[in-house]
Specification:
Blueprint (H helix, E strand, L loop, with lengths): L3 E3 L2 H18 L5 E6 L2 H11 L5 E11 L2 E9 L12 E9 L3 H11 L4 E9 L9 E5 L3 E3 L16
Parallel strand pairs: 1-8, 2-3, 2-5, 5-6, 6-7
Antiparallel strand pairs: 3-4
Length: 161
């Protein structure tokens, strides 16, 4: 098995604080933290607290289907935030990893014509990402085991019909 990057919950706490500090030090003051579900949810929520931003929202994007397995293109799943609600805002788009960058690019393009400014924060960025993050904790090209997704679901199934 190829070597992997392992993110622990304690390291996640360090990553959140260091990225939040980088955002604060840059002078960027987001009106909203927009997390990309599912992987970006823990990071976006934690950044909301660390940056004292109470307006935290989510956009659902499906791309990965397994380890290094993905759909042809990322797709947004409902419900999607109404872009009119983002009008004139400064938005911090958050995800756990900028791998190909295609998911981040989709979200950036979705909000681009409506927001005042958007910037991207990720825990990890890979060298081949087409989106370069404004804020990133660590760069790696290894597969990453995140603490919230490295173990199988406890339910043994998925969503019930």
């Amino acid at each position: 098995m190829a070597e992997r990057e392992i993110l622990t919950y304690p390291d996640f706490g360090v990553a959140v604080r260091e990225v939040a500090q980088a955002v604060a030090d840059s002078g960027f003051e987001p009106d909203i933290v927009l997390s990309i579900a599912r992987g970006g949810l823990p990071f976006g929520g934690a950044l909301g607290y660390a940056l004292d931003v109470k307006n935290v929202s989510v956009v659902n994007v499906e791309f990965y289907t397994g380890v290094d397995e993905r759909l042809d293109v990322p797709i947004m799943l409902p419900p999607t935030p109404d872009v009119v609600d983002l009008s004139g805002m400064t938005v911090l788009v958050c995800d756990d990893v900028a791998d190909t960058g295609r998911t981040l690019k989709l979200v950036q393009e979705y909000v681009a014509d409506h927001v005042k400014e958007s910037r991207v924060a990720c825990i990890y960025e890979k060298s081949h990402s087409i989106v370069k993050c404004d804020y990133v904790w660590k760069r790696t090209d290894q597969w990453i085991d995140f603490p919230w997704s490295s173990l199988p679901p406890v339910t043994g199934g998925g969503a019930k019909p």
